[in-house]
Amino acid sequence: MRSDDPHHASVRRAMEVHQPTPLPLVVPVAAPIVPAQSGTVPTVASIVLPDGRVVTGYAVDHTQHPPAATPPAVSRTAVNVALGGVGFLAVCGGLLLLTSFIAALAALITQLITLAAVIFGGWIAVQVLGTNSGRSGSTVNIRRAVFKRNHFHS
Prior knowledge:
The chain is mostly helical. The protein has helices at residues 6-15, 76-129, 142-149; strands at residues 21-22, 44-48, 54-58. The longest helix has 54 residues, at 76-129. It starts with 5 loop residues before the first helix and ends in a 5-residue tail after the last helix.
């Protein structure tokens, strides 16, 4: 390829790197100073490229990224283990309370059955040992009373 080849020259031009030359910001002296409102038109910057073209654009403010989140003082694994332990203790406590409740309920039922037996037994005793219309006295022969009750009179 020759150096005077037009194709070679365009390739060389395309490979060159041009650094932009910033233009100084010119403030007109005669312009009245008006207080700028926040959020209005941003400042405009212009640069001249080496080939003579002018590029104009808005200045871009760099966004501030929030700082990286600091890791917690306690690891997540430790928190999960602790929460699991608390949950296990809660379940164990609940089962203990359930067992106690069932035992108390069983004791209550036993006492109610005993109370019913005592009351029913007392009623039976009153029926059997109660005074008959024709008899008076405090001594009672139980065998004879049972026989009388069963209609086995002697």
